[in-house]
Amino acid sequence: MDLIGCCRAFVRVSETGSFTRGAAAARIPQSVASRRVAALERHLGERLFDRTARRARLTPFGREMLPSARRLVRLAEVLEQDATRARLRPVRLAVPEVCTTRGLVDLDVEARAHELFLEFRRAPPAERAELVREQDVRAALVAVPAEDGVWTVPLGVAGGTALRRGAVYLESLRVGRSGGPRRRVWIQPEDDVPHVRDVVTRGGDAVGLPPAQVSVADALTSAAAEVLGSADLLLCSAAQAGELGLRWRLIGELPGLARGFDATATAAEDAERLRTLVWTGIARCLGVPTAAEAAG
């Protein structure tokens, strides 16, 4: 028996003095209101209404039970209101600084369709994980090795000057091979993590690049400025290169280099909702290539 539904019908009928009007107030058919009141009477073991009168008149037992029924209905309504507020409470999400405003807007729109409300905080990789541990945010998109990622973003290099077709080889950047000034590869803060930074650094060492030719920038803006004002290259995704107006190529020695991302949260269900309900929106936001883009 639906005790709350039965008590709600009982309270509304008692307030209106009519099964018809009480059913309307409870937004249920009159036949349903009658069945619920009858079920409550059977459950309690006494009649609640005197059905011999024209009006639905409370019996002495019904008058005794009405205050308790009202309290139960009020508590149920408070519970429903609290549940609604809890569903609408935003999930504060730490996201990579590489996410564009438009990408975050599109993600927010997709999340709202699933009654998931997000607030965003941009932060570098190490800080995002720490924000979750300190409970400054409820969830974060954290950097992980590509093989462990729920979302994977291929990385290459991009430049403001013309690049040859095909991959760019780090070996070609050696002084004396390129026939020009020393060209640096700039690593932005999002890729200043061991599973990306160290791979690129080792790749440069393996082909004889001096350590200074692979540099970690303090910010994406400064790295992009260095690249736009010279023949230097920026380690980035194809989506970032497009946003900055740069020409993008894979790295010949490191064709599988990629960023990996996963969701973590203070509550496991929040992380799972991000992985499932809004996978597509997060993928777009991070720059995961579509199937057509990957094929092209």
TrEMBL record:
| The HTH lysR-type domain, residue ranges | 1-59
Cite the Gene3D superfamilies for this sequence: Winged helix-like DNA-binding domain superfamily/Winged helix DNA-binding domain
Database matches in InterPro entries: LysR_HTH_N, WH-like_DNA-bd_sf, WH_DNA-bd_sf
Domain of life of the native organism: Bacteria
* The keyword Transcription regulation is assigned to this record: yes
For this protein, the parts annotated as crossing the membrane are: none
* Keyword list, A-Z: DNA-binding, Transcription, Transcription regulation
An MF annotation (GO) of this entry: DNA-binding transcription factor activity
Classification via Pfam families: HTH_1 (PF00126)
Family named by the database record: Belongs to the LysR transcriptional regulatory family.
The record ties this protein, via PANTHER family, to: HTH-TYPE TRANSCRIPTIONAL REGULATOR (PTHR30126), HTH-TYPE TRANSCRIPTIONAL REGULATOR GLTR (PTHR30126:SF40)
- The protein's name is LysR family transcriptional regulator
What is the organism lineage in this UniProt record? Bacteria, Bacillati, Actinomycetota, Actinomycetes, Pseudonocardiales
